[in-house]
């Protein structure tokens, strides 16, 4: 069957909260076989158990049948650590969802370009890092960036930014690097639509549209707390009840992960040199203390993760 996105198998790199969610919507909504890889097998186990829980909940709520849940789960296969990125050799698209670290992403894209076939799309779920920089890392070592080979390698890199929790949030932001080809952009958009998402597009600027707007808002809330303007509860309640936000900004920061918020804010600040994006000292100190939010039980609030 010929699909507009042409993705017969997708590889998801990273089994954290984002990667797991992307694997789930790919298997359940786009109905595409998924290969899931994370260098931490513990993370894979956690991701698969979250997936099972979410599918069981959808069945219990009558949204999908038992059979649909089973089919979706059967579409997800784990790539073992011995295979590593080589396990993605035959996929038509990889979606990278590892932590927000430029050097890590560059090294991954440099390896992926060597492993995958020439028509495979290399998508990154980065929240803020330049897609153009990541695409440059996909150019084979020693190639001139203007060569056909380099243009082909970098041209298949694209930004595909999902939102947490992926199965619930309806949006995906699509970002073209300077090098991305129109065909790759169209196929990637078609894949996001097949995953049940509405797609907006953003230029490749730090934070794109979403985080260029969201992160100063979260940071301002943290600075309110830092200055003692109000308690954490009152800051969050103001936004929840006064503006109908589903979560207050401090709750949302905990939900996204304070380490991730800081990494995004640093990228915004370094990328724009605009002081409005400077991360608050309190956020930096909380990350120094390894208080990462909901994922490890302590952020602006405490969570029982057991
Ligand atoms: N994974 C999957 N599903 C989840 C979930 C998770 N981590 N957390 C909650 N859900 C599901 C619940 O299971 C429930 O599903 P159901 O309708 O099938 O029962 C549904 O979400 C609603 O959950 P609850 O009833 O428990 O709680 P709420 O009504 O408070 O909703 C929420 C939870 C959907 C997370 C809501 O509070 C919300 O929309 N918050 C804002 C989230 C947001 O802004 N996300 C974007 C963050 S920015 C981002 O991701 C970009 C990145 O670059 C930083």
TrEMBL record:
Top-level lineage group: Eukaryota
Lineage: Eukaryota, Fungi, Dikarya, Basidiomycota, Agaricomycotina
Record protein name field: Uncharacterized protein
